[in-house]
């Protein structure tokens, strides 16, 4: 049974159709890529899945739950986490705090319990602290646990964003251009990291990416969007030779 | 200004260094009881203060305490959560009137007249709850809107409270309400200040508190890492309103005469100045801001009406030149819970590292060295 089923997803910004009739069946453990020129609607698809926008039409089913109309935090709690195209860390907070916040919904204590420091509160806080530190340690960020997030070098900020997403214990991870702004060395490392977390945390991943090297290197299946429409779908090899894709990326003259 | 502050801070920390070294060298059980011991010592001093302080100085101390409660609670909304609420005096008014009505009318009518001094905390808490309830009522509609709109809604709220109170004749209307006993003492204020700071510190250093901070940092990202932003906003707002209500009750029982004008926008502005002077996102900063500003306003009495220019002017200058205030986002060490201090977290890291069994992720370039 597919983890994620998207049927006829359509979204308008005023009169502009940003996403049009987008369909997707995602099997558990798959790693698929979404590519397309700027403004093709890729990030909008992520925003629709995670509840930032409410789709104009269509349905999104995640493990049998209908996501349409749910708040972002509810959707995260169901097991979908994401990273952002432009890094959106909590800049003035520590690296550890960034990860701990992602365990917000995992704490069952209430505000009065926090204020009076009940045994249950102390136990859960200790657990949150420890889980977060373990995750940082696993991802090689433990040395910087006390740093302010904005003081991390760029590559590590990307990594922290992934760590923060993993802290929510997702089943499905949405990565929005994780390689943006990275040098070739960092990109190689990122590809390795993505494949590692996929195995380690048993994840299904959707990847939006402009770096063809990344998409072609690690994705099993690719969807190509242009002006909100899905123009092609297939394995990396099929996509590379698809004339419509080449046209969308390079313009008609290049094909002719 | 910034340089001056830094040099003051450096001088202070240098002066306190020997003291701190002595403290660090004490055996652990002694250190464990230092803080409670000091709190009790100060309580005894506060209890005895009427015997060695004249009424004027007692009153200033009481105002400082009340202002600390107001500032710390507003800092929760404006500093930690990053919203801009400007109607804190409105909640203070609710607490002040409800607590006063209880001690002046309700308790005596129930035949509890002679117990009023003992029921004072009960009156304060009910006043706080009433303020919290009004906080809940206005939080719902106002957090549907975002950013600047909250300022407008809270501004309107402050004005509504003032005009409603002016138009209820039964509680004195514009003439005000009186008949309260002088129940607020230095000791009572001290106790409430300690309770407020303790409870809010616990809140701020919980994961709920970190969720609050994340809303200030990036609300969308916050909801996308599972923070129920709506719940956090409403809760924080209600908690802040509760403590403003407590402060209002204390205030009413020291000046023994309240009227709607005591809780105008001017009062709210004072609290805002104290928050931004002391520093957003800092409990220590709020304590400092409330103390400095209260004493400053008191020492400016000779300026008469002109002293009311100082507050708003300071607010404008602060927002332009030093939006983070004296202690913005920093905290006094003793206000940070033990388990959140740097050395505890470092120890946790070492423990986690030793325990690790599985292979770590491909290590980042220039990252950790193990």
How far is the first residue's CA from the last residue's CA of chain B? 44 Å
Q: What is the succession of H and E elements of chain B?
A: HHHHHHEHHHHEHHHH
Helical element count of chain A? 11
Return residue spans of chain B where pLDDT drops below 50 for at least 5 consecutive residues.
366-370
Description:
The complex is a heterodimer of chains A (about 260) and B (about 375). With about 260 residues, chain A is α/β, with parallel strands linked by helices. Chain A has a single domain, classed as Rossmann fold (3-Layer(aba) Sandwich), CATH 3.40.50. Chain A contains eleven helices and ten strands. A six-stranded mixed sheet of chain A has the order 6-7-8-3-9-10, with helices on both faces. In chain A, strands 2-1-4-5 form a four-stranded antiparallel sheet, covered by helices on one side. In chain A, helix 7 links the parallel strand 7 (about 170-175) and strand 8 (about 205-210). The longest helix of chain A is centred in the middle third of the chain and has 20 residues, at about 120-140. Chain A is globular and about 65 Å long. Chain A starts with a strand and ends with a helix. Mean pLDDT of chain B is about 90; it is low at about 365-370. The longest helix of chain B has 27 residues, at about 115-140. The two termini of chain B are about 45 Å apart. Chain B is mostly helical and about 375 residues long. In chain B, about 70% of the residues lie in helices and about 0% in strands. A two-stranded antiparallel sheet of chain B has the order 1-2. In chain B, helix 11 (about 265-280) packs across helix 13 (about 305-320). Chain B is globular and about 75 Å long. Chain B has a domain at about 55-265. Chain B contains 14 helices and two strands; from the N terminus they run H-H-H-H-H-H-E-H-H-H-H-E-H-H-H-H.
